Amino acid sequence: MDTGISTLMRLGDSGQMVADPQQDIRGRKVLDRDGHEIGKVDDLLIDSEHRKVRLLRVEHGGLFGIGATPLFIPVEAVERITDDEVGIDRSRTQVAEAPAYDPELIERDAYFNDLYGYYGYSPFWAPGYIPPVRGFFR
C-alpha cells in the first residue's frame, strides 16, 4: 500500500525555504499546554509533493544539542506561535510518552502511522484528511 508517507523530508535537506520567513519556526522553543518547555524546533518535516509542513522535529535533552533526542509532533498539535515560542495542545508527559523513533529499529511508515494514532489525529495521507483549522501551516 502506498501511503504517501515516503514523501516526507526535512526542510533543511530539501533545498526549499519557507515562503514567509516569519513562519519559519526552526529554533523556537516548544512549550506544552501548561507552559513547560519541551525542547526546540530543530527542523520541519514537509510533504515534498504538496509542499506542506506535516511534522515538527523537536530536539530535547542533551547539552548544547549533543545527546539530544528528536521528537516528532504533528502540526495539528500546534495551538499558537509567537516570535520565540511554539505552543502545543499536549502535556510534556504526553509528548514524552509518544512513540520513539529509531531509524535502525523501526520501519518509518509504521512509525508515522503509530505517531498520528497516538496523538489522535487523522494522518495527512488518509482519505478525507482535513488540514488543521488553526491555519499555521496551510
Automatic annotation (TrEMBL):
Gene3D superfamilies: Photosynthetic Reaction Center, subunit H, domain 2. Residues 23-89 form the PRC-barrel domain. Pfam families: PRC. One of its GO terms (biological process) is photosynthesis, light reaction. Transmembrane segments: none annotated. GO terms for cellular component: plasma membrane light-harvesting complex. PANTHER family: BLR1072 PROTEIN (PTHR36505:SF1). This is PRC-barrel domain-containing protein.
